[in-house]
Write a structure and sequence with these properties.
The complex is a heterodimer of chains A (513) and B (341).
Chain A (H helix, E strand, L loop, with lengths): L12 E10 L2 E11 L4 E5 L6 H8 L7 E6 L2 E3 L12 E4 L11 H5 L6 E2 L2 E2 L1 H14 L15 H14 L4 E5 L7 H16 L3 E5 L3 H7 L2 E6 L2 E7 L5 H9 L19 E10 L2 E9 L3 E6 L5 H9 L6 E6 L2 E3 L4 H6 L2 E4 L3 H5 L6 H6 L7 E2 L2 E2 L1 H15 L15 H14 L4 E5 L7 H16 L3 E5 L3 H7 L2 E6 L2 E7 L5 H8 L6 H7 L1
Parallel strand pairs in A: 3-10, 3-11, 6-9, 9-10, 15-22, 15-23, 18-21, 21-22
Antiparallel strand pairs in A: 1-2, 1-4, 4-5, 7-8, 11-12, 13-14, 13-16, 16-17, 19-20, 23-24
Helix pairs in contact in A: 7-16, 12-13
Chain B lengths: L12 H26 L6 H26 L7 H23 L3 H27 L5 H19 L4 E3 L2 H7 L1 H4 L1 E2 L2 E2 H19 L1 H11 L1 H6 L4 H27 L1 E3 L6 H11 L11 H20 L8 H24 L6
Antiparallel strand pairs in B: 1-4, 2-3
Helix pairs in contact in B: 1-13, 1-14, 2-8, 2-9, 2-11, 2-12, 2-13, 3-4, 3-5, 3-11, 4-5, 4-11, 8-9, 8-11, 9-11, 12-13, 12-14, 13-14
Classes of the chains: A alpha/beta (513), B mainly alpha (341).
Chain lengths: 513, 341
């Protein structure tokens, strides 16, 4: 499988005109992709561009709706459920798939344990594990328990597991998202060692500088389409960002009404420090929509949770309408007119196994009491109002919320949040995983709320959304504010530069000095 | 819009809900018919009164357990707690008889002692599970052992008996009737009604269901999760206390054998009644019926010779598993074809 200098080796794994739809929603359109032995091929694109779907198809977890996969020169159908690992295609998930209570050696041999007389041959497995770790130059004790390891070491265990399975193609989904700079460098050395042995690596990352450093070729996806596959030497971070963007704003977004310059400040956060949040300061005016952009895990949700009292604030101050506040429970922030709408509508936002009405009123049940007892009629009226206002579509009110579509769940959650009549609303990923029609409805609702004089923070990983809605945008990176953009600066390439760490604002330098 | 297409109707739905709510009641009626056919005495007034009175203990405790389980907890300590409270009541009342003679106040003192102990024990269980962040199963397994051991210690391995003058005053609480309905049954009815209202008509009940259904959602919905959880254990303790108050005059004694396995009977009553063991859905009415079913099984076996009375536990076990299977297993299959996201 080694190639002569200069001529590219034949690809080991390739996707040929692969398309994929989930139900009626297409997510990949006729994408060509290939990776050669000894090569690092990076896939980049915005959230929702189809990167994850593509690697799932390349590892057999999903089957393409049309198109084909070739492995080792032959057109094949990859087996599902990670069975492609046996063929040498290993996918390392972003959230690592390790059983926390097993040892390193147990993990490496999980599912194909070595046996002697029918019993586990622990000694041999330990030795094998150690020798695999040695070839990788990783110093992790094979007998250590997984939950005692750092995330970086866990990743190394995943890689060791892949190597011990003779992986020929290693697919990594945002492996550096949770790593520090030095850990990232160790990982990169590891990847270079693997490619030197002829392993093909497919690598997803949002960090453009890393891609420039590591990748041989880069494939850019946008909205499920293949934009380009280019050799890294022909690229600059700016040109990659440009390729990822390259799209006009449609009328998906309502026109922006700038808030008055002298509109009062309703929320002021100063030097906030909390878990995952390092020294954040920002203001929010009455009637303003403030966008929070950044990569997943950059600390945007952590800021919101620290502000409303869902997580513990270590330092800094929060003022609502000029008054210093210190919320330790959600009830307090709701009472102060500040509501947070979670991004995790299924896990944190809604009770999936009950109907619409109890969900709608759960946050504000006290409003529906008469003589200390629940007033079902008042609740039913509230639901009627919310269904009309937010266009929630359900067969009837008794249908379980878990059976609603994502869009209707999102609208119900919006209704629930608005029941508390907040003046400040923090919306975390308000349109995640919903169809474009419902998105547009939600955008118009958000704009209308701002026009009414509500103040809104929109946290979103979809840059188009942040750009289309926000009057100002805070870009976060690794728990810090990388920059604040206003007016004409709010363009995707600029946000991407801050989010990916190519550019840092002067303010940030001052703060970190 | 394409959205509405997802929410298609499933014709079987109404049927399922009906069976789910009416199932336990149907089972109880069938059991009564069966009992009557085996021995007409089963539905005689004396036997019915007896059956209801006996079901009151487990029933009252099970009403409390419904709250704990609905909010996603479990309380294994109730049987030992009942024995411990009964023992303490007797000790306190005997002491009162010895030091200041006997009067209604002696009994009231015992009742007060029971209420304080019940609420306190419930608070301890709740505090340890919420603030101590220990699983409810572990906490209540621990307190179960502690109370059981304490009653054995105070009874010195034997039996604590209530002094007979106090017993004479206390006796009517178990043996008397109002409007031909025994007092324990009245207590059961009142506890059940209050429990039903609390569960279905107050914010507290809604919060219990929300917490049991998804604790995160509850927290993000501004519900004080720890406080509500602790309250469910306090309600449980209070129910145990009430059950003990009507239990003590029945025998006038307490020993290490008092209340053995009551926790499992109470949990069984709750589950037969249609409450989900994993929390999130509670039915007080079902719990009452569950308690009646359990007591009726023992009663029927007593009245007939077909199955040995020694097999009481086996029959109860079969009924519990069958009830849960009918409520969950068969209907879950129908629920699987829910629309995709």
């Amino acid at each position: 499988m080694t190639s002569a200098e200069g001529t590219p080796a034949p690809s080991i794994l390739s996707a040929n005109r692969v398309s994929k739809s989930f139900g009626e929603i297409p997510v990949l359109f006729s994408v060509d992709f290939d990776v050669r032995p000894g090569e690092v091929h990076a896939i980049i694109g915005e959230n929702g561009a189809g990167k994850s779907t593509l690697i799932k198809i390349l590892s057999g977890i999903e089957q393409p709706t049309s198109g084909s996969i070739s492995y080792d020169g032959r057109t094949t159908v990859l087996p599902p459920n990670g069975e492609a690992e046996a063929l040498g295609i290993v996918l390392i998930h972003q959230e690592l798939n390790l059983a926390e209570h097993l040892t390193v050696a147990d993990s490496i041999f999980l599912g194909r344990e070595m046996r002697k007389f029918g019993f586990l041959d622990l000694r041999q497995m330990r030795e094998k594990a150690r020798s695999v770790m040695d070839t990788l130059h990783v110093r992790v004790d094979p007998e250590a328990r997984i939950n005692m390891l750092s995330v970086a070491d866990k990743q190394m265990v995943e890689i060791a597991k892949a190597i011990s399975r003779d992986a020929r193609v290693l697919i990594m989904d945002e492996p550096t998202a949770v790593l520090s700079v030095s850990e990232t460098q160790t990982l990169f050395e590891q990847i270079r060692r693997l490619t030197a042995r002829g392993v093909a690596v497919i690598f997803i990352s949002h960090k453009l500088d890393e891609i420039m450093e590591l990748a041989d070729r880069v494939t850019v996806l946008r909205d499920g389409q293949l934009i380009a596959t280019v050799g890294t030497e022909a690229l600059t971070p700016d040109s990659i960002a440009q390729m990822m963007v390259g799209r006009e704003l449609s009328n998906l977004y309502p026109p922006k009404h700038e808030p008055d310059v002298d509109a009062p400040l309703v929320l002021s956060v100063r030097n906030l420090v909390a878990p995952g949040v390092k020294d954040i300061s920002f203001d929010l005016r009455r009637g303003e929509i403030l966008g929070f952009a950044g990569l997943i895990g950059s600390g945007r949700t952590a800021v919101a949770e620290a502000v409303v009292g869902l997580s513990h604030r270590v330092a800094g101050s929060v003022a609502v309408n000029g008054e210093a506040v210190n919320f330790t429970e959600v009830a307090q922030s709701v009472a102060a007119g500040l509501a947070y709408m979670t991004k995790d509508r299924k896990g944190r936002g809604l009770l999936l196994n009950v109907g619409l009405q109890p969900n709608l009123t759960l946050l504000t049940l006290k409003k529906h009491m008469r003589n200390g007892f629940l007033d079902g009629r008042s609740e039913a009226k509230a639901l009627e109002r919310a269904v009309r206002r937010f266009d929630i579509r359900a067969r009837d009110a008794s249908v379980r919320v878990g059976q609603l579509s994502g869009g209707n769940q999102q609208k119900l959650m919006l209704g629930k949040t608005m029941e508390s009549e907040p003046d400040i609303i923090i919306m975390d990923e308000p349109t995640r995983g919903i169809d474009v029609g419902t998105k547009q409805q939600i955008y118009h609702i958000i704009a209308a709320l701002a026009a009414e004089g509500k103040s809104i923070i929109v946290i979103s990983s979809e840059m188009q959304e942040v750009i289309g809605l926000s009057h100002r945008v805070v870009v976060m990176r690794e728990g810090r504010m990388a920059g604040v953009l206003e007016g004409a600066e709010i363009v995707e390439a600029e946000i991407m530069r801050y989010a990916a760490g190519i550019k840092q604002s002067g303010e940030d330098e001052r703060l970190s000095a | 819009m394409s959205v509405s297409a997802h929410e298609t109707t499933r014709p079987s739905r109404g049927f399922r809900i009906d069976l789910k709510t009416a199932g336990p009641l149907l089972a109880l009626i069938l059991l009564c018919v069966f009992g009557y056919l085996l021995n007409p005495l089963f539905l005689g007034e004396g036997n019915v009164t007896n059956l209801l009175t006996r079901s009151a203990f487990i029933g009252i405790i099970a009403v409390g357990a419904t709250f704990v389980i609905t909010a996603g907890g479990i309380d294994l300590s109730v049987g030992s707690m009942a024995a411990f409270i009964a023992g303490m009541m007797i000790i306190v009342m005997n002491w009162a008889v010895g030091s200041m003679g006997v009067s209604v106040w002696t009994v009231l003192l015992g009742v007060g002692c029971s209420l304080i102990l019940g609420i306190g024990a419930g608070f301890i269980n709740g505090f340890l599970t919420t603030k101590g962040k220990i699983e409810a199963f572990i906490v209540t397994l621990g307190t179960m052992g502690i109370y059981r051991s304490l009653i054995t210690y105070f009874a010195d391995g034997g039996t604590l008996s209530l002094a007979s003058p106090a017993r004479d005053i206390y006796r009517p609480i178990y043996y008397d009737s109002i409007l031909r309905i025994p007092i324990p049954v009245w207590v059961f009815i009142i506890v059940a009604i209050i429990g039903w209202v609390l569960m279905n008509r107050t914010a507290f009940g809604r919060y219990c269901m929300a917490i049991g259904s998804n604790e995160h959602v509850a927290r993000y919905s501004a519900i004080k999760v720890d406080r509500i959880r602790t309250l469910t254990y306090i309600i449980q303790g209070l129910c145990v206390s009430l059950a003990t108050i009507i239990y003590v005059p029945r025998l006038g004694s307490a020993s290490s054998a008092t209340g053995v396995l009551w926790e499992l009977e109470a949990i069984a009553a709750v589950i037969i009644g249609g409450t989900m063991l994993k929390g999130g859905f509670g039915r007080i009415g079902g719990t009452v019926i569950g308690a009646l079913i359990l007591t009726a099984i023992g009663n029927i076996l007593n009245l007939t010779d077909i199955i040995s009375n020694y097999l009481n536990g086996a029959v109860q076990g079969v009924i519990i598993v069958a009830a849960v299977y009918l409520q969950r297993g068969s209907f879950r299959a129908g629920r699987k074809n829910k629309p995709a996201e």
